[in-house]
């Protein structure tokens, strides 16, 4: 067999500058060579080397274009021009995992309603340059993308799916793809104990929403061009998905925040103010902060004790995260769930490895990833991991308005939001919440039909006369009607066209203007 050359090297004249270019299997490098001729012994003119060497990883080259066609292509050992017919296929020769055919869903009404413009102006030209073919669907109503993916889409034709929108659109993609995969594999989503089958198609997000929390946490920025480049080069980032059940009935999946109390109430209020755009969250956040409702109930959880990492770690989930790799490996080996008991916790609080905590809570939050976003650059749980098979359960007990404000403010500074007497955080594999007062069927019906029970004030609630008995769960920006839920984490169930955050964002080290 003919031996393949390991290195190709040649000289390239570009705008009167001469470059020495070399290419091996992983790197394309170039270095300028001086145009001024230097006489060396023997009377020959040799260019001498100047400047520093530059390089780009072959896996990050988007496309190769032939600029001028030269008919004389005799093989004299130098680089040859590619014949025209092979330029079509050539871009895919760089790496095997690049997508060739994508199914794209655009939400024209997400965020500031710029989805179509962003896609047409910034993303489509890059896909064309990289010879990616697309089938584009502009959604006509909510859940259009989810239902199309779940039932109609001919997924065999595609190497990935892309959404142009915010976290809500991403959630539609997750629901469509995960449900379709379970149906195709005969898995019953209604069983909370069922191990779900991972999705093979990767999901790309072109950010065009209000929060873009998933994009921030997986890329580090919400920039459509950066996200398009991650799709083109075929990056892959695995992500955990939580399943949410009520009474052995599947409700929803969550990848970022499951929040009861504060974040549930903010969302319920903000849904009625969609016309305000992204500012609705600040308005409803301020209003909810002032109402200062707390909710009574029982939280039970299965601590993740056999894994690397804790929610109080200083290390962060970054590209190629070792903790995600290690814990993902544990999960795939089907290791038994060893539950070591915490010596500071009385035995009475453990039931079959589960811990049980009863109380009055301002907020119960489960963050399966950091939930970093511009409002909180380090996120709700800064040390949470994208793909470690766990979620960080944050319990904020009833406290004064002032203390709750201190806790909220710490999300925007370098100070630890968990280092407060009324806050605790646990890294868990599963959890349940049961409100103190059972929801009646009629109350649930009304909630399911989208009507909030404002008259439902303090029924059977002797403690006060102004606090409702139930909040709602904010499930990645969607309201759940049931207060009693059971949640399980499915390690690395989906994959994104992303590679994780590559470096510390600059804003993480900014001095704190308001340390309280
Ligand atoms: C005083 C400033 C404190 C700022 C504290 C900010 C902490 C913000 C943490 C944000 C976490 C977002 C998690 C992402 C969840 C997404 O799956 C979901 C779908 O997009 N987004 C929301 O539910 C959208 C949720 C949006 C929540 C916004 C909350 C804004 C709180 C403002 C409180 C103001 C108090 C002012 C008192 C003077
Ligand atoms: N054509 C459409 N008309 C109305 N609603 C739609 C349409 N397409 C999608 N949706 C719904 O719009 C909701 C919001 O969309 P999206 O997530 O793109 O933006 P956002 O809510 O502004 O951003 P974020 O989720 O980041 O806060 C989603 O829940 C989605 O189901
Ligand atoms: Ca996780």
Automatic annotation (TrEMBL):
<dbReference type="Pfam" id="PF00781">
    <property type="entry name" value="DAGK_cat"/>
</dbReference>
<feature type="domain" description="DAGKc">
    <location>
        <begin position="97"/>
        <end position="248"/>
    </location>
</feature>
<dbReference type="Pfam" id="PF19280">
    <property type="entry name" value="CERK_C"/>
</dbReference>
<dbReference type="GO" id="GO:0001729">
    <property type="term" value="F:ceramide kinase activity"/>
</dbReference>
<dbReference type="GO" id="GO:0006672">
    <property type="term" value="P:ceramide metabolic process"/>
</dbReference>
<dbReference type="GO" id="GO:0016020">
    <property type="term" value="C:membrane"/>
</dbReference>
<dbReference type="Pfam" id="PF25382">
    <property type="entry name" value="PH_CERK"/>
</dbReference>
<protein>
    <submittedName>
        <fullName>Ceramide kinase</fullName>
    </submittedName>
</protein>
<dbReference type="InterPro" id="IPR050187">
    <property type="entry name" value="Lipid_Phosphate_FormReg"/>
</dbReference>
<dbReference type="InterPro" id="IPR001206">
    <property type="entry name" value="Diacylglycerol_kinase_cat_dom"/>
</dbReference>
<dbReference type="InterPro" id="IPR057465">
    <property type="entry name" value="CERK_PH"/>
</dbReference>
<dbReference type="InterPro" id="IPR016064">
    <property type="entry name" value="NAD/diacylglycerol_kinase_sf"/>
</dbReference>
<dbReference type="InterPro" id="IPR017438">
    <property type="entry name" value="ATP-NAD_kinase_N"/>
</dbReference>
<dbReference type="InterPro" id="IPR045363">
    <property type="entry name" value="CERK_C"/>
</dbReference>
